[in-house]
Amino acid sequence: MEPMAEKPKRSLLSIVVVALLILNLVALVYFVFDMRLRVSRLEGELETLRFQLVSLEAELSALRDEVKILRVGNASESLTFVEIYNRTKWSVVLISVRTRLGRGMGSGFIYDKEGRIITNNHVVEGAEEIEVTFIDGTVVEAEVVGRDPYVDLAVIDVDVPEQLLKPVKFGNSSELLVGERVIAIGNPFGLEGTMTIGVVSALSRQMRAPGGFVIVDVIQTDAAINPGNSGGPLLNMRGEVVGMNTAIVSGTGQFAGIGFAIPIDTIKRELPSLLEEGVYHHPYLGISGTDIKPGIAEAMGLDPSTRGCLIVEVVEGGPADEAGLRGGTTEAVIDGSRVRIGGDIIIGVDGHSIRQFYDLVLYMERHKKPGDKALLTIIREGKTMEVEVTLGARPPP
After folding, report:
1. CA nearest 203: which of 225, 182, 187, 188?
2. Is residue 122 flagged as an active site residue?
3. Does 386 reside within a domain?
């Protein structure tokens, strides 16, 4: 039989053990609560920082625009319309082509003293014969030097006396502002040397390109552009070429106030390759994608504010496939449309935020070339991770 003194000792020990357990439990609860509170505070601070970053980016963009406005508003740098026309008309040519389907015409502008002329790919595509008419009436045959159907760009070459060759002066399309005056010179309906005047209506538009790709950074203008203007220059008030007139939106096939020009920065980027190799190799990721919208985010169990590029499909054997990126797994009806969801969501590339599919395409076209590596930040199954991809070359159209 146990001594009576042992029972109080055990009872006291039990009380101590229970008390310690309770204290540990309280401490654990407090620790978990404190950690959650800290995480919540950090998330709040992170969201504040994100907001501040967006605000700073907006302020920086506004400051850049103010600098551009000061540049554009400097009257001492501007020319009159008459001066611009008379300085440029010698640089613009009429291009006539014969194909198996018939005849067509467009415009072009002289690039250098070697006789290279820039125009649209669609002006010379499939041509069996190309003729160039200069403003003085000289007519010569031309041959294609290089073409890029993906941005509707071509370079042709003529053999003429050097005095006929008056190269244009290139500007910078990245410095354009909406509302800035621009001038189009070309040959609408074969009417040689026609000048029209308008403004930059919008920037960073996109146009369809072969194979489901897009042309980025397209300039929208209300300067009158009609059939025959294709390939002609779009000029700023210094007489510099800032774009190449390419397409219109119209229900009749004639000018309706909306014209598009390929930016000169894109042309400058591609020219060395077109002149040396006859082609330009675009960077290639090998995916099809769509913008993340609240309905898609909700269907994938993400915060409705999530933005990025949802990978719908990965091209088998392409760069994205080799890097292990994943496309959609299931189909869902969202806002009345069928969307393949469940794939990786690209939210960043090389530290730059991606809020829509166009942001990704734009970054790749501006900053990357085949063989370059790109570090993608993605969301996969709710978790953020990074994947490095070695870019390929876009296949021929």
Report:
1. 182
2. yes
3. yes
Domain range for 362 is 283-393
Of 96, 107, 230, 359, which is the active-site residue?
Answer: 230
Residues across the chain? 397
Residue 41 lies in a domain: no
Q: Which of 215, 243, 269 is the last residue of a domain?
A: 269
Residues 192 and 265 in one domain: yes
Q: Are residues 259 and 314 in the same domain?
A: no
DSSP string, 331-351: EEEETTEEEEESS-EEEEETT
From 91, 96, 107, 152, active-site residue: 152
Spatial neighbors of 304 by CB under 8 A, at least 6 apart, are 294, 297, 298
Which tokens belong to 331?
């189909």
Q: What is the pLDDT tens value at each position of the chain, 397 positions in all?
A: 455 555 565 666 667 666 677 777 776 777 766 676 676 666 666 666 665 665 566 566 656 655 655 555 544 457 899 999 999 999 999 999 999 989 999 999 999 999 999 999 999 999 999 999 999 999 999 999 999 999 999 999 999 999 999 999 999 999 999 999 999 999 998 888 999 999 999 999 999 998 889 999 999 999 999 989 999 999 999 999 999 999 877 666 666 788 999 999 999 999 999 999 999 999 999 999 999 988 898 888 888 888 999 999 999 999 999 999 999 988 888 888 888 989 999 999 998 999 999 999 999 999 999 999 999 999 998 889 999 999 999 998 8
Domain count of the chain? 3
Grouping H, G, I as helix, E, B as strand and the rest as coil, residue 171 is coil
Instruction: Report d(CA 214, CA 156) in Å as an integer.
Output: 24
Q: What is the CATH number of the domain that holds 148?
A: 2.40.10.10
152 is catalytic: yes
Residue whose structure tokens are 């959650």? 36
Could you confirm whether 230 is annotated as catalytic?
yes
CA distance 319 to 60: 34
One of 78, 122, 273, 281 is an active-site residue; which one?
A: 122
Query: What are the two backbone dihedrals, phi and then psi, of residue 372, each rounded to the nearest 5 degrees?
Result: -70, 155
